[in-house]
Design a protein that fits this description.
Blueprint: E1 3-6, E2 9-12, E3 16-17, E4 31-34, H1 35-40, H2 42-46, E5 52-56, E6 74-78, H3 86-97, E7 103-107, H4 113-121, E8 126-127, H5 135-142
Parallel strand pairs: 3-4, 4-5, 5-6, 6-7, 7-8
Antiparallel strand pairs: 1-2, 1-8
Helix pairs in contact: 4-5
């Protein structure tokens, strides 16, 4: 069972990754499919009625998804290494230029508490933390700063916001 930090709450993740559970493709479970797989088997995924998400690699161009955004309940942006920053731009483009209003999730080995604040400023609202990262510490990272020097992406949450359980 995986937990994610979603909209400032630590919750059990109902989404599955195609790479982890290919058999989930035929179920009603919400599924995140890599963009390459989505393109390779377009007819199969177009016929799917269960919630569908897409996982973007750093080199994927978000503009290519512009006409399809309404199909996706979730877009997962991959951060495979700490030096890979293209995902920040992908998130900002999805929110500001393309108007994506669904869940924007940061995934990958480099999603750590130190990046959470900057990711929120780029429009991300969910985080699948790297193995070994403490979700409570990541939540606390959201409370670290109360002021930012530049505006965040349109639709990004306020700097400090508390949710009651």
């Amino acid at each position: 069972m995986r937990h994610v930090l979603r909209r400032r709450e630590i919750v059990v993740d109902e989404w599955r990754h195609y790479s982890e559970e290919p058999e989930a493709a035929s179920s009603d479970a919400p599924l995140i499919v890599p963009l390459a797989e989505l393109r390779a088997n377009a007819e199969r995924w177009a016929a799917r009625r269960a919630p569908l998400g897409v996982r973007l690699a750093p080199a994927d161009k978000v503009e290519e998804l512009a006409s399809e955004l309404s199909r996706f309940a979730l877009i997962a942006v991959d951060f495979p290494t700490p030096s890979e920053g293209r995902g920040y731009t992908q998130g900002r483009l999805l929110r500001e230029r393309l108007g994506f209003s669904g869940e924007l999730r940061a995934v990958g080995a480099a999603v750590k508490r130190d990046q959470i604040f900057a990711l929120v400023r780029c429009g991300f609202d969910a985080f699948e933390l790297a193995p070994g990262e403490d979700p409570d510490a990541a939540y606390q990272a959201l409370e670290r700063y109360s002021v930012a020097y530049q505006p965040g992406a349109r639709g990004s949450p306020p700097l400090r916001q508390r949710y009651s359980a």
